[in-house]
From TrEMBL:
This is BTB domain-containing protein. InterPro entries: BTB/POZ_dom, SKP1/BTB/POZ_sf. SMART domains: BTB. Residues 85-152 form the BTB domain. It comes from Nasonia vitripennis (Parasitic wasp).
Length: 249
């Protein structure tokens, strides 16, 4: 606090920060009617050793995180292992072994499949007819160890196929991962296809991002021939048009 009523009292302070004469000059508008300058600040006080303990706690948490990830990686060894497997899938003519107890914990669809009185409950071999082998493998990898590989046998995996699998088997974590991966590739040429895919598979975050992209670049995107394909999906086209109209208000 600076008190300009008494010059002697006004001589204290940190002069490297501000000159007293600058503060006391009414034209600068820093003083209240009481001729006092009130400075508000936030002060944090750390007891001796707190910072060191905080660093140690961070190291412990990081070590625990690493250990947990290593434990998850060990589950990857169970992927497509016939050891203790109690169910197998036939996908595009190839067989994949799995474990029901692991599948039902990640997917309510698998849980219903194995709990209901269905043919799949009785048979150890289940034929999957509407999903690609590469996508099914990566879906299982995510279920077993929480990660995916974008390349299998030197063949790039379509994230769109994986999003389809995540939606079909109701695996939210995998769907979220797919949405984020596809969201990084939104462009003028791809945005319409990404929007339709997001709408088809209930990927709300990705859909919202695609619509925002179209709105922000509507003058360019509306000229792309692919945009006309939205006329086959009237509800989706209506959403886009409303978003553009609202933006122009």
């Amino acid at each position: 606090m600076y008190n300009t009523q008494n010059d002697a009292e006004a001589m204290w302070g940190f002069y490297d920060f501000v000159d007293t004469s600058f503060v006391s000059n009414r034209e600068n508008g820093l003083l209240h009617n009481s001729l006092k300058l009130v400075i508000e600040c936030e002060i944090k006080i750390y007891a001796s050793g707190d910072k060191e303990r905080a660093n140690q706690d961070d190291c412990v948490r990081e070590e625990e995180k690493t250990q947990r990830l290593e434990e998850f990686d060990r589950y990857e060894n169970l992927l497509d292992s016939s050891a203790f497997s109690d169910v197998s899938f036939m996908v595009e003519g190839k067989i994949l072994h799995a474990h029901k107890c692991i599948l039902v914990k990640s997917s309510p669809v698998f849980s219903a499949m194995f709990n209901n009185e269905m043919r799949e409950k009785q048979e150890r071999m289940i034929e999957m007819e509407d999903i690609k082998y590469s996508a099914f493998v990566e879906m299982l990898r995510f279920i077993y160890c929480g990660k995916i590989n974008l390349e299998i046998d030197n063949m790039e995996l379509s994230v769109g196929d994986l999003l389809f699998a995540a939606d079909k088997y109701d695996i939210d974590g995998l769907k979220d991962k797919c949405e984020k991966l596809m969201g990084k590739n939104v462009s003028n040429d791809k945005v319409v296809d990404i929007l339709k895919l997001a709408d088809r598979h209930n990927a709300s975050n990705l859909k919202s991002k695609a619509i925002k992209f179209i709105v922000s670049r509507s003058s360019n995107v509306l000229k792309i021939p692919n945009f006309k394909t939205l006329t086959n999906i009237p509800d989706l086209l209506c959403e886009v048009c409303l978003a553009i109209a609202y933006k122009k208000k």
